[in-house]
Amino acid sequence: MSTKKKSSGRQSNLFTFFQKTPKTEKSDEITPIHGDSGKDKVIDEAIDDLENIPAKKEITTPSNKNSPKIANGTNKPKITTTPLSVKRKLSKTEEKQDVSIILDDDSNSGENVEGFLSCAGSSFTDSPASPQFSFKRRRAIISSDEEEDDDLNKSKSDRKIRKNEDKVDKNLIEVKEVLNDVKRENDSEKMSISKEKMEQDVPIVDDDSCQLISQKKEKSTGKAHSFIELFNFSNNDGEEIISDQKQQSKSSSNVLKTPKSTKASHDGENKDGDDHFPHLDFEFLKKPRDAQKRKPTDPEYDSRTLFVPPDFLKQQSPGHQQWWKLKSAHFDTILFFKVGKFYELYHMDAVIAVENLSLVYMRGKYAHCGFPEASYGRYAEQLVNKGYKVARIEQTETPEQLAERQKKSKNSTNNCSSPRIEREKVVRRELCRLTTIGTKTFGILDGNDSRDSNDVAVDPSPNYLLALTERKSDNRSNDGFSRFGACFVDCSVGKFFLAEFDDDRFQSNLRTLFAHNLPVQLIYEKGALSSGTITLLQTMLSSVPKEILFPKRQFMTAEDTLDLLSEELYFGSGIDQWPSTFRSLLDDSPIPKPSRQHKLCISAFGAILWYLRECLIDVDTVSMRQIELYSPPSLNFDDNSGNICPMSSSEAWKGKHTILDGSSLLNLHILPSLSSNNNTNSNTSFSLFNTLNRCLTASGKRLLRQWISTPTCDKETLLGRQSCIKWLMADERRPHLAKWMELLKKIPDLERLFQRIHTIGSKHRADTKHGGGGHPDSRAQLFDSDRYNKRKIRDLLVVLDGLEDLMRLKRMFLNANEMDAEKSVPSMLTNCFGSNYKEMNEDLQFFKNAFDRQSALEHGVIQPNKGVDEEYDLACSDVISCESHLNEFLERMRKVFKCSTIKFVGTGRNSYQLEIPDAFCKSLGTDFRLTSQRKGFKRYYTDELQQLFDKLTNSETQRDLISAEVTRRVFADFSQRKDKWKNIVNNLAQFDCLISLTLFAQSSPKKMCFPEFCYDSEKPFLSISKGFHPSLIDAVGVDYIPNDCELGGKNSPLMLLTGANMGGKSTYMRQIAALVVMAQIGSMVPANSMKLTPVDRIFCRIGASDRLVAGQSTFYVELAETNIILRQATSYSLVLIDELGRGTSTFDGTAIACAVLKYLSTKICCRGLFSTHYHALCKFVANNPNVKLGHMACMVENANLEDPTMEAITFLYTLAEGASDKSYGFYTAKMAGIDVEIVRKAFAASKMLEENS
């Protein structure tokens, strides 16, 4: 092989795909099949002459600014034949193929150019003095191995190459045709066979630089050779295909044919704009069946798999057989199929990739595209975020391992002549990772090489994968009540949550679970969910990808789940070693046995475990042993008014939280909408979470979301947070606060990094044996393995640096505390920097002294210092001992010969030769064996010296074997210590949340106050003076008007709110709810003052729409939500109902609204706001002491009782006592642009209806 050193400039990786016919000979020398050997010799000599034409003039290349230029007489590319060269074609198949000369781009110099010649035929010039080579590709992709290469430049380069392909040198074609005509005369009988067209793609890749591949004298590198043979046919393969040509011609869609000539090749290729690829005609894709040949109509049909006919597989190359077998097992997944240094996508996968990733099709009949290995993370992330499943297929075998496997296979099948054994001559590939939007773990291949960029914290929101199953509730089986089992996991941090609960027929608890823990992917048991639950999933989680699992074999039973968890890979057989949370779900038994109340959630855990096994991250995630129980609000299905518990003491509220169901969280804009993860929503920026979120760490943001979705009622917690914010807001703390914030910004997402380090240190992933139970990633042959090893070291160093920043933050906090001796620091803040910090400091000191950080980061390997790894230390001690014995031997020889110049020389296997001057060699004994000599010196081995050297060699080999395992052990050691650091991370998140609430209070342009809680009031109450909506106080161009609120206590608990359309009623109701939530997370609120009794639950019936999928009208949805309020509200609840009854007739709506309002005011007596446009309600509640009237004021100019279009209304957005005169709906119609005449006619009709009623 003709090679050059890899140029220092930026190189381009060039990939060429083209056609070839089956091999006919295994040796380099090709013997003609028949015909006149003399004529053949003349032809071969002519070809050799053409191959050795000197390149005196500049090679013609496409007009591409990235194309290299070869100056005259410099770095002339040598044109040689290849295993797919013209000689081979003339001897067997006589197929005309194209020549692809791909030149590497050296950005530093136009003189240092390397050529890469790949051919399935050859073309030559007719003028030795003026050779010109034209680019002629069958399929080519020019890709950079740098991650930051621009796809647009790649697309432009591809278009320019295609433009120049039409400029083929006619002289080259003429010479080729003459040679072929001569040969055709000799092989006329064989030509009928060789004219049959078959296509075989052969990717020829050189991993580091573009080189020339020669057939005879020059050898390709091991890696390039393995890529060349990737899709090769054996001799038997070729014979098998030739014998089946008639069948192939009938099913042209299954076999890609080889063109007869250059022109035919161009005509047969799939041009730009023609998207009809052969896979669209495959019958088994038109009428798919699963791997077990089941039709889609079969109840057991598995859409994840595909049946690929064996006859079709026989027609494929070994490489494509691998692809189709993997596609058969993962039909719903896009395969990133590793070929050399590139990931390839074929057929339907290529179409999706081109449409979504802006890739370019490679030239050819079938859909085909690819990209470099370094770009995997970027492209996989794009597809996964769009809802696709992506599988990473790696080569898990080296060429040497392939050769050894072939040798063993050959020895075991000497008596078997089956051609299929030869077809296995292809490196082994395995599925190493299957990624979905719910199983993202931000692995090493997904990251980047910048230590400064915290790539794992770009989006700190948890990505929950949720498993759900349902059964009829044993308690209320006849009333439509269900019992749900759920398990959801955030794979990026390795944390599981299990829940099992009863629910009403409206799935209230399930809705709350979805709102509190928004899943990004859902799996559920086939046939287990009721129609109502399916409808809920299709409406509330319409944009969330869903998969159905078969009962038992996929969605495992609780018993099967426990049996699987008993394996050593997970929890082990000893129940006492299982996580305590999981043990609480089991019966008291020596063997794992699920309790009756938790069978469903354990079964859901089994479904998650099965799915994680499919994605090959089950051990990584479960071995984190982070399992928690989730308890949604328990429902009291009886009439709440008769079971109200007295809550007139702080002890009664201890440990309790305010309940906000899914409807309240979304309709009150407490959390971002469910669709905000996938789509930009204008309401998202006005959610309370985004308003309060000033957190600087990922863990802090996740905790703040939890605080807001489940506010606390605990007095100690509320007062503690208030005191912390008050202390942090002091003027003397401002300089310290700025420094603390700077440190917080540097701290990475430690929770996700803990999981990543745990995965790297997993012993399961260190098992490299095929079939030995290890992870296939440990066997993957990655071309940029050094880069990935450095990323591993970088992640460890980032965590260590982050923890050291935590220690600096603690020291800075304590220093600030000492300087402020007059005011004591709140205990909640001191607890944030209290326990475990001493142990963490010791651990950090250990890792600081464990290894050289800079050396490890540069080489991607950890060489531990003494005392870190005992086994490694022993191995190093043995090496040192052997070296010491050798030095003692040398000193003894110097004393014996009385010569100080005697020394050891040599390298490698010839090390430690004893070099003795010639003057002392005459007296040597017979035990000195001469090995080599130089002028004046001779070199010897003795038996003793040989034994010492052999012992040293064995010790060094053992040390190197242990050294390869040391890096993993360091990561594993770190992972074992992580449990004690999790509390520190949780405390850090709490400190970050407190700072976030402090920053919000400091940045508010309105007056802020701390709410006062009253736990001993006889009647619940809520009092707000001059309150603002927190999400609107910073709105640009809006002068928001404050409002008061007095509910309960000495006042009426309910307010009937009226007012003009667009007068601010709904905003006022949302404002009250938002201020209550802020108060109960311990935050300051934008108001002059606020006093309240804790709220146990906030109910909201604001805004409604129909549910087409569920067949539910708007009015039905309103009443269903109202029913939940009437059944579950207590006197300590806050109820917000907006315009109930508007979805039906006026009389029906008024009657229903009146009945609901009366029930709330007399039976439940809760605090609430009830808005309406039914002014008749004001008369019905006039004598009800529990209901007071209020309205949103407005000012009317030009009041006209005959023509409402003459009126001008100014909304004051101020709450006033009493009922409003009317709703001014005609003015709203005028504002909306409805024609004035239509408005006047409507007003006339309204007066007529009013008079008749």
TrEMBL record:
InterPro entries named among the record's database cross-references: DNA_mismatch_repair_MutS-lik_N, DNA_mismatch_repair_MutS/MSH, DNA_mismatch_repair_MutS_C, DNA_mismatch_repair_MutS_clamp, DNA_mismatch_repair_MutS_core, DNA_mismatch_repair_MutS_N, DNA_mismatch_repair_MutS_sf, DNA_mmatch_repair_MutS_con_dom
Region of interest: Disordered: 1-41, 53-167, 183-202, 242-276, 398-421
Ranges of biased composition (kind: Basic and acidic residues): 22-41, 152-167, 183-200, 264-276
GO cellular component: MutSalpha complex
Gene3D superfamilies: 1.10.1420.10, DNA repair protein MutS, domain I, MutS, connector domain, P-loop containing nucleotide triphosphate hydrolases
UniProt cross-references to Pfam families, sorted A to Z: MutS_I, MutS_II, MutS_III, MutS_IV, MutS_V
The DNA mismatch repair proteins mutS family domain, residue ranges: 1133-1149
UniProt entry tagged with the keyword Transmembrane: no
GO molecular function: ATP binding; ATP-dependent DNA damage sensor activity; mismatched DNA binding
Low complexity bias locations: 244-253
Keyword Iron belongs to the record: no
Biased composition regions of type Polar residues, renumbered to the chain: 9-21, 60-84, 120-133
Source taxon at top rank: Eukaryota
Keywords: ATP-binding, DNA damage, DNA repair, DNA-binding, Nucleotide-binding
GO BP terms, alphabetized: mismatch repair
PROSITE patterns membership: DNA_MISMATCH_REPAIR_2
Assigned protein family: Belongs to the DNA mismatch repair MutS family.
PANTHER family xrefs: DNA MISMATCH REPAIR PROTEIN MSH6, DNA MISMATCH REPAIR PROTEIN MUTS FAMILY MEMBER
Role description: Component of the post-replicative DNA mismatch repair system (MMR).
Identification of the protein by name: DNA mismatch repair protein
